[in-house]
């Protein structure tokens, strides 16, 4: 009955304020994350703790296997326990490589090896793997690498399972096990307190980010790791989530939300959560369209003969490179234009065809777009003679609420 009620609540069409907020729980690095539990008996005990907490809250998790964490036949038994408990197993690679530090060919070979192994494992259980998750959430540090994995995942029938609540729960695994082995009860309580404080803070922060992006309540995908502190603390964590208006939902119900259909292609060295990826792409698209507007306004100023307005877009310290040499500073650029284009007839009609946009930001994490470079073909049309045309490379940086040209190379 409780389960039916849960499903019903998830299927409510609109997530009005106050309605329960669906959360998918995903667990990484199965069977056990890290190297803290070499003994099979302890590994089984940790697994039992994790499964007990999930069962108590009627959670159906997606649990992602890292095959290099499977130490022997006893660990296959642990994977079976997850599957038998109704959790969906997915692919989290063989060697947990960082895609940033690995070329596409090597990385894809590792993922494919793990996919085949998972398929082999699930077949006798009459199950199939659908989901894949990038180790460290790193999806590619060049556009080509990003595309290579997307194309491989599509071809191999795997879906990249995103994370919206990306946190550092794994940091608490080692201090917890150490305190437990040394029998230091006070230290255990302290680690647990920090674990919850961290997870609550990140959850609120990332959930708020998703809500602001979409202007409504968004469902979340929580990332947790299969570790001993989780076995001991998930019950309290899940209770907190229920008390703060969340309801645990299955993967398909959560992923059906349109927020997960928004395309994103963040290229970077590190792996941010989904809301950061989407936010970054929206900022980049806005920067590009603002820069386009800025340059179009500039062309309009040219076309009404307003060289002052045309040059106002240049930064005070802009550098202008052309075949005739280098001009430094806005005032000098204006002077140069005045000399070369003394009359409306000389100026003609300016238009741009935009050929390429690049944005730059901190590669460490999604952040504000700091600069945009544009390659464009400029064209001047005259009523009485043939048009002139050439290429230009313009670099603009954020200045106040707008954009200023800092470098311009026109030919
Ligand atoms: Zn992982």
Assign an overall shape. Answer: elongated
Helix segment tally: 13
Q: Return the structural class.
A: alpha/beta
Estimate the helix proportion, in percent: 40-55%
What is the N-to-C order of secondary-structure elements (H for helix, E for strand)? HEHEHEHEHEHHEHEHHHEEHHEEEE
Bound ions, cofactors and other small molecules, one mention each? zinc ion
Widest sheet, order of strands: 9-8-13-12-11-10
> Which stretches are low in confidence, meaning pLDDT under 50 for 5 or more residues running?
5-16
Radius of gyration: 28 Å
Largest sheet: 6 strands, mixed
| β-strand number | 13
Strand content: 15-25%
Residue-averaged pLDDT, rounded?
92
End-to-end Cα distance, whole Å, is 73 Å
């Amino acid at each position: 009955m409780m389960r039916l009620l849960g499903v019903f609540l998830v299927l409510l069409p609109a997530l009005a304020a106050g309605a329960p907020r669906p959360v998918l729980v995903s667990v990484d690095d199965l069977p056990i994350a890290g190297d803290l539990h070499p003994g099979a008996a302890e590994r089984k005990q940790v697994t039992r703790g994790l499964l007990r907490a999930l069962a108590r809250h009627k959670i159906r998790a997606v649990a992602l296997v890292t095959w290099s964490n499977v130490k022997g036949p006893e660990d296959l038994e642990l994977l079976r326990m997850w599957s038998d408990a109704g959790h969906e197993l997915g692919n989290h690679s063989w060697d947990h490589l960082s895609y940033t530090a690995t070329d596409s060919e090597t990385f894809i070979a590792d993922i494919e090896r793990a996919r085949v192994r998972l398929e082999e494992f699930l077949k006798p259980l009459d199950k199939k793997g659908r989901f894949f998750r990038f180790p460290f959430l790193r999806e590619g540090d060049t556009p080509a690498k990003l595309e290579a994995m997307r194309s491989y995942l599509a071809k191999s029938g795997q879906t990249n399972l995103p994370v919206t609540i990306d946190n550092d729960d794994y940091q608490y695994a080692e201090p917890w096990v150490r305190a437990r082995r040394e029998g230091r009860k006070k230290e255990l309580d302290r680690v647990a307190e920090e674990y919850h404080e961290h997870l609550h803070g990140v959850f609120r922060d990332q959930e708020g980010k998703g809500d602001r992006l979409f202007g409504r309540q968004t469902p979340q995908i929580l990332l947790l790791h299969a570790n001993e502190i989780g076995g001991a603390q998930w019950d309290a964590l899940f209770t907190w989530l229920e008390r703060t208006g969340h309801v645990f939902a299955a993967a398909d119900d959560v992923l059906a939300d349109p927020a997960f259909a928004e395309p994103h292609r963040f290229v970077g060295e590190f792996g941010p959560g989904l809301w950061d990826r989407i936010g970054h792409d929206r900022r980049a698209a806005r920067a590009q369209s603002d820069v386009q507007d800025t340059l179009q306004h500039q062309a309009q100023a040219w076309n009404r003969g307003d060289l002052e307005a045309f040059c106002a877009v240049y930064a005070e310290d802009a550098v202008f490179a052309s075949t005739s040499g280098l001009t430094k500073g806005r005032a000098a650029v204006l002077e140069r234009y005045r000399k070369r284009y003394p009359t409306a007839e000389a100026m003609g009609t300016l238009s741009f065809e935009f050929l390429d946009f690049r944005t730059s930001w901190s590669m460490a994490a999604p952040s504000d777009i700091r600069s945009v470079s544009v390659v464009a073909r400029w064209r001047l049309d005259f009523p009485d003679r043939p048009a002139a045309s050439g290429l230009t490379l313009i670099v603009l940086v954020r200045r106040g609420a707008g954009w200023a040209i800092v470098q311009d190379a026109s030919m």
